[in-house]
Design brief:
alpha+beta, 7-stranded mixed sheet, about 15% strand
Length: about 250
């Protein structure tokens, strides 16, 4: 077993050893529901915990953000952008196919809206409770030991939704398949330690993508610019005519 379902199962083994080797069918059904929830994070790559060099603040349990990479080109949003959000174009990707432009690595930092996490958490809790049936708990009641996993699922999906909103705001598009996965630089499990649903979360991430030609702004000359260019063109023609007259 792997992923969040495995961690729930291991916790169950330590709290109820008599059933550790043969989990009841209701438990397995619930684990399947949680496993389905993780499907929304198919394009999500968690930073392995052993590579994490981030400390956790003892005051607010907030994960320290990974340092911003040097260099890159700071981008401006093409539409509305969330407060505190920044995006930089980094190096061009080599050996990566892109059908809609030159592929680059993009670095970003932003803040997940606490209201979004709360909304996602409410929906996931409702979906999970529909099939929850645990001994000792009412049907539809999610056991307390499953709550941390539900919270982590909620944070993961909220991160994905936030990244997608950033892409839309900056006129970017992720690459297809594995080439376009998002990598959140902070350890999501650490982000959830001591986290209370409804609070905002800062993060940094990288994404392989390119500029979406359908979302990039079209340069349109204003009426005054067109008139100015026309006047300048007439002046050039008159000037040339005067020179020819003098020469004659």
């Amino acid at each position: 077993r792997n992923g969040a379902s495995s961690s729930i199962y291991c916790y169950h083994r330590t709290t109820n050893k008599t059933k550790a080797s043969n989990p009841n069918k209701s438990t397995m059904k619930f684990l399947s529901v949680l496993a389905l929830i993780t499907a929304v994070s198919n394009a999500f790559v968690l930073q392995p915990s052993f590579q994490s060099s981030r400390g956790v603040s003892s005051l607010h349990m907030a994960v320290d953000l990974v340092a911003e990479p040097e260099g890159g080109i700071e981008l401006s949003p093409v539409s509305s952008s969330m407060p505190g959000c920044r995006v930089k174009q980094m190096d061009e990707l080599q050996g990566v196919k892109c059908d809609f432009g030159t592929p680059y690595e993009f670095w970003m930092t932003a803040e997940v809206d606490g209201a979004l996490v709360k909304e996602v958490h409410t929906q996931i809790s409702k979906d999970a409770s529909k099939k929850a049936a645990f001994p000792g708990f009412r049907k539809g009641q999610v056991p307390p030991y499953a709550q941390p996993q539900i919270t982590q699922f909620s944070v993961q999906e909220s991160l994905i939704k936030t990244v997608r909103a950033i892409l839309d705001g900056y006129g970017l598009k992720e690459l297809a398949g594995d080439d376009g996965k998002v990598e959140v630089k902070e350890d999501v499990a650490d982000m959830c330690k001591g986290y209370k649903v409804g609070g905002s979360l800062k993060f940094t991430a990288t994404l392989n993508g390119s500029y979406d030609p359908e979302k990039q702004p079209t340069v349109v000359e204003s009426e005054s610019e067109v008139v100015t260019e026309a006047i300048e063109a007439v002046a050039v023609v008159e000037s040339e005519s005067e020179v020819e007259t003098e020469a004659a």
